[in-house]
């Protein structure tokens, strides 16, 4: 090791700036565990070497991988006891333990047991599987490989009509209960800066944000988690009370992406940093160009790394594409005429003896999706929602002819009531009904 690496050069402030760790945490580690090992000036002030800084970064990396600080210190001393330098040994890498979902994979076997117990509504057995998993594997690995992938599998079973909505809700409730418990027991913050995490108005899916909040806490960040469906009302006073350096939001559907967009615009106007993610941005990649703030990538792992970069470097936000004027006009006109469109739609379908038991719900969802796409500035954003809905109802045995007749009637009702002002909507409906006719 070079003389420069072992020369006492840096004061406490320099180490804090370099590592992002809080001063009292650094002092606590030194006092309780003996790491790092700074020298003292004649005035009793701590002075650190480059090796001390590297040691702190090594410890933070172990926390990022899901270790507790005591386990990381134990591993450091274990390596030193073998006459190995921990800074040069790849002692623990989460990626080495991450496994594929092959038939012989231990994590896949655990996940299958957890899914099976959830599908049987066996809470005690499902909880026992998780308890054993957390005893063996790091928190991050269990959350990603068992909980998230397990829920995704159950969701896919529901989508294909092979599991009930009750089974999906049971598994989700168990997951949320466990994640809340883990979040409550997570280590105290060690890094400077506060992060507010929440779902925008009308977004009820919280599991992804709970996992992200938990992983951020294990990385040492001070996270304030607000949960689902936060309203615009009193947001300003909440921001003032929490004083976050960053607000993280997530949306899973087009409708909540639109409310997320309004929320990030409000935060941008107030000079508050925002970041966002969620499954809808994977389905519609160009959607993130319509949102103020930093896109957090395709996965929870991407998000944790990007958030760290935002907190460290405060990069600028990309410019957002403006909403075209015809879209603003179409939005106002559709709001005013929507009830007439739906009235005429019902009249047409009643005349055709179309089954109407799900009409109100279908109209409500489509209407909200149209408004969301208009507010986001691109009617083609609707295509992914329609594709999902089309596949879902096909899996549940709804004939394709019903879908075709519904959109044909909706087109005719919209064309009648919107005139030229609703051109983006009418053109999109015309294209959609043509696609249905061609099938």
Q: What topology does this entry show?
A:
Layout: H1 3-6, H2 12-19, H3 23-33, E1 39-40, E2 46-47, H4 50-64, H5 69-81, H6 94-97, H7 106-119, H8 123-136, H9 139-159, H10 165-184, E3 194-198, H11 207-218, E4 222-227, H12 235-242, E5 246-250, H13 254-269, E6 274-277, H14 279-283, E7 294-295, H15 300-313, H16 325-351, H17 359-376, H18 382-395, H19 400-418, H20 423-437
Parallel strand pairs: 3-4, 3-5, 5-6, 6-7
Antiparallel strand pairs: 1-2
Helix pairs in contact: 7-8, 7-9, 9-10, 9-11, 10-11, 11-15, 13-17, 16-17, 16-19, 19-20
Strand order of the largest sheet: 4-3-5-6-7
What is the chain-wise order of helices and strands? Answer: HHHEEHHHHHHHEHEHEHEHEHHHHHH
Helix content: 55-70%
Principal-axes geometry comes out as elongated
Rg, rounded, reads: 26 Å
Structural class: mainly alpha
Describe this structure in words.
- The chain is mainly alpha-helical.
- The chain contains 20 helices and 7 strands.
- It has a 5-stranded parallel β-sheet, sandwiched between helices. Strands 1-2 form a two-stranded antiparallel ribbon.
- α14 links the parallel β6 (274-277) and β7.
- The model is unreliable at 91-104 (pLDDT under 50).
């Amino acid at each position: 090791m070079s003389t420069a690496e072992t020369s006492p050069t840096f004061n406490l402030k320099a180490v804090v700036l370099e590592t992002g760790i809080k001063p009292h945490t650094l002092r606590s580690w030194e006092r309780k565990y003996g790491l790092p090992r700074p020298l003292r000036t004649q005035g009793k002030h701590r002075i650190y070497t480059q090796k001390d800084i590297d040691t702190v970064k090594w410890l933070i990396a172990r926390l990022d991988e899901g270790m507790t600080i005591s386990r990381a210190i134990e591993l450091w001393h274990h390596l030193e006891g073998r006459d190995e330098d921990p800074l040069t040994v790849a002692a623990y890498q989460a990626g080495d333990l991450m496994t594929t979902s092959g038939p012989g994979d231990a994590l896949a076997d655990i996940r299958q047991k957890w899914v099976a117990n959830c599908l049987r509504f066996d809470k005690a057995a499902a909880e026992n599987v998780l308890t054993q998993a957390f005893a063996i594997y790091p928190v991050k690995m269990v959350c990603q490989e068992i909980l998230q992938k397990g829920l995704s599998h159950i969701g896919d079973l529901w989508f294909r009509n092979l599991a009930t909505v009750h089974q999906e809700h049971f598994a989700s409730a168990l997951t949320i209960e466990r994640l809340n418990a883990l979040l409550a027991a997570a280590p105290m913050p060690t890094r400077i800066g506060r992060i507010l995490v929440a779902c925008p108005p009308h977004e009820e899916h919280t599991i992804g944000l709970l996992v992200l909040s938990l992983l951020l806490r294990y990385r040492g960040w001070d996270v304030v988690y607000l949960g689902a469906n936060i309203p615009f009302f009193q947001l300003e006073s909440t921001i003032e009370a929490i004083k976050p350096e960053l607000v993280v939001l997530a949306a899973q559907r087009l409708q909540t992406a639109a409310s997320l967009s309004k929320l990030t615009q409000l935060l941008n106007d107030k000079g508050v940093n925002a970041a966002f993610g969620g499954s809808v941005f994977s389905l519609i990649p160009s959607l993130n160009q319509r949102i103020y703030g930093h896109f957090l990538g395709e996965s929870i792992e991407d998000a944790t790394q990007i958030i760290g970069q935002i907190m460290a470097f405060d990069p600028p936000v990309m410019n957002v594409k403006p909403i075209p004027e015809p879209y603003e006009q179409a939005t106002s006109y559709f709001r005013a005429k929507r009830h007439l469109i739906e009235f005429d739609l019902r009249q047409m379908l009643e005349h055709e003896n179309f089954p109407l038991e799900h009409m109100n719900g279908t109209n409500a969802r489509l209407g909200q999706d149209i408004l969301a796409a208009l507010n986001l500035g691109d009617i083609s954003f609707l295509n992914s929602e329609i594709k999902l809905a089309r596949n879902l109802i096909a899996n549940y045995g709804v004939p394709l002819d019903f879908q075709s007749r519904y959109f044909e009637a909706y087109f005719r009702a919209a064309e009648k009531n919107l005139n030229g002002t609703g051109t983006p909507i009418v053109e999109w409906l015309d294209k959609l009904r043509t696609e249905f006719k061609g099938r």
